[in-house]
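Entry 14. Structure prediction run on the chain below.
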Amino acid sequence: MKKNTITACLCLALSVAIMIYTGLNFLAARELPLPEWGPSVTEVKMLSEWFDGLEGTNGDTPVYVLEGKKPGGSMLILGGTHANEVSGYMSAFTFIENAVVEEGTVYVIPYTNHSAMTHNDPSEGNLQYFTLTTASGERTFRYGSRATNPVDQWPDPDVYVHYPSGQQLSGSETRNINRAYPGRPDGNLTEKMAYGVASLIRAENIDLTFDLHEASPEYPVINATVAHQRAMNIAAEGCINIMLDGIEMSLEQSPTNFHGLTHREWGDNSDINVAILMETANASQGRLRGATSIDQVLGGEDVCYEISQRLGMLYVPWTEGKAHPIEERCGRHLQGIYEYSQAYNEENQNRPVIYSGVPSYDDLYTNAAYEDLGGAQLAKFLK
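Output returned:
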């Protein structure tokens, strides 16, 4: 009897310890690392300042405001639309910490779906965190999920019906913010987040927007720019300049019959002149990948994709070793923002957005030592 009591007490103590550990881990996931203030950051607001329906929710998210010395146009950069697409939010961090805005105002949201950043997809074997060693020491970054945290929005319907188009998609897409625009104030949390971003766009008279994404190497829209039809002239000019920089980039017009996406809904439902989305290649998102690892997420290393390349199954080239490291992917995004904004400025000289100081594709990737690819080179441009 005494032996059974001791065993029961030990099991109870172990259960309590596991509960405490997992509880602390759960709470820690909701504390997200934030960018350091760069030279042009004048204030950090919350998205709820444009839509108060987000206040006090896990969907509320910081908005970094970078004001130039001279008035001009306004630009919005979104990272973390999908929180498992690392180069999106790391490009936003890099822009915030380096940009010197000379004319106009730039708004940057590093965690567009803040809720999605507070969990990951354990069934995918995904990471929770990764670290980079910067000038100030070791910094930890989250690896999130494509979708809003189910703790914040549940259950998923059998069929997701987009508002206001009536488009029907798989029920899980109800937690994908890039199927929720233009959003609605009385909708679910994902729709409210989308409505908050759309409210910012309207209130601040945003002229051009960039939504930064990644895709699996077997996905056809990759190393690509997608633009609303009103933005195609500027996008074409910028795309040509990107290719002259030595970067392969395809250009596609936003499909008119696919609703809920940034480039479609912002272009249709606001006065934005330039609505653009960019995609880079992320091995950790694909169905053909090997085990998820730091080397895969940051270095672009994956033997399974090397085999897939030889079998002709990919839409991007995949070399042995560091095929598409984080530096190449962030470099594509940051060079793209620069070239497209330059093309916009040429056509809108009365409302330019002019900035400098952000590392280029060459700074991050082309001119980097091979051993620094996979995070070390990017870390040189973070505080």
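The first strand starts at residue 41 and ends at 46.
Filed with the rest of this week's runs.
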